[in-house]
Amino acid sequence: MKMKIGIVGFGFMGHCDADTFDTFDDIELTAVCDTNPDQLKDAPEGVKQYSNVDDMLKDADIDVVMVSTPNPSHPEMVKKAAKAGKHVICEKPAAMSVKEFDEMVEACKEAGVLFTVHQQRRWDTDYRVMKEVYDKHMVGDPYIIKSQLYGFNGYMHDWHVYPEMGGGMLYDWGVHLIDQILNMVDSKIVSLYADIRNVINEKVDDYFKIIMKFASGVTAEIELGTYYLTPMRGWFIGGNTGSAMLNGFTNEGKIVRTEHLLENVPGKITMTAVGPTRSFGPAPEGLLIDEPLPEVNVSQRDYFVQFLKAFNGEEEVFVKPEQVRRVLRVMDAVRESGKTGKAIEFEK
Ligand SMILES: NC(=O)c1ccc[n+]([C@@H]2O[C@H](COP(=O)([O-])OP(=O)(O)OC[C@H]3O[C@@H](n4cnc5c(N)ncnc54)[C@H](O)[C@@H]3O)[C@@H](O)[C@H]2O)c1
User: Fold this and answer.
1) pTM of the model
2) Fewest CB atoms within 10 A around its CB: which of 63, 138, 154, 314?
3) Residue 113 belongs to some domain of the structure
4) Could you tell me the residue range of the domain that residue 102 belongs to?
C-alpha cells in the first residue's frame, strides 16, 4: 500500500525528507505545511500546501505526518496529529523532557496510531561499521568505545542558538550520538559523567564529553566540539584482542592486532625522541598487523524502508518509544552531571 505523507515544518529537514521520499515508489508526499510562506515556494509540484497544521490534519489524503518543526513544538504537533488519526514520525529530539514525551506516547497509544522518532543516524555508515566490529567481537571483548565529532568554527545556525528553542549541541547531535551508543551496547548504564560547556556560544552548549560506564564492563565516551580546529568524525573501539579506529563518515580506518601479546620488551629498544620508555615507544617491526574495517551497505534512507514495514503491519516500528525515552533520561542525567560536576548513578 502506498504511504501518503504530509510534512509539517518545511524547513531544512522538511526539504531533506521530501527529497528522500522522492526516491521511493511506495511513499507519496501529498502535503507540506509551513507558517513561513517563503519555505513553501519550492514545494514540489502537485503537493498540497498549507499554512496551518490544523488545516493539514483535516486532509484525508494523509496517512502519516512527519513533524519537522523546531523542537519545542513537537509535543503539540504529535498530539494533534495523533488525535486526527495520523501515524506520526517526529524529528529528534522528540521532546525536551521525559514528561512531555510520555504524554506524546500516551496520545498516540490512545489514538491507536504508530509513533516513532527520526533517529536515522542508526543507519550512518561509520556507526554501522563500528557496530559490526562491536557485535562480531572483531577486537575481542571491548572495554572502551569512543565516538568523537569535531567541527571547526563554533557555528550554530538559526534557532539553535536559543535555549528556549531547544538549541545547543546536546539537543542537536547529542541525541544521535547517545542513541547510537545505546543501540550498540546492550547493557544497563551503571553511571555517567558529563562535562558540558559553552566555549564560544553564549547561551547554549557547544562542547560536551559524556562518559557512560555500562554494567557489561564497557565504557563509552562521547565527545563533541563545534570549536575544535581539527574537524573530524572519529571512532575507536579497544578490545582485548585488538583496536579499531575509524576517521570520517565512511569505513575509512583499520583494525590493528598484535602478532603476540604481553611479551616482556627490553627497555632500551623502545627509544623515543625524548628518551627511552618501556611501554610507549614505537612498536617493534612486524608486531602490529593492520586489517581493513568491515564494509556495510546502509544509508539513512533505510530508516524509511524500515518504517514502511511498520506502516504495512509487517513489523513494529524500529525506533521504539521506550528507546527514545531512555535517551531522554540519559540526557537529563547528563545535564545534571554537567551542572554538579559529579558522576550520576544510573539504572542500578
Ligand atoms: N534527524 C536529523 O538528523 C535532523 C537534522 C536536522 C534537524 N532535525 C530536526 O528537525 C527539526 C527542524 O529543524 P530544521 O533544521 O529543519 O529547522 P528549520 O528552522 O530549518 O525548519 C523548521 C520549519 O518549521 C516551520 N515552522 C515553525 N513553526 C511552525 C508551525 N507552527 N507550523 C508549521 N511550520 C512551522 C518554520 O517556518 C521552518 O520552516 C528540529 O526538531 C531539528 O532538531 C533533525
Assistant:
1) 0.96
2) 314
3) yes
4) 3-118
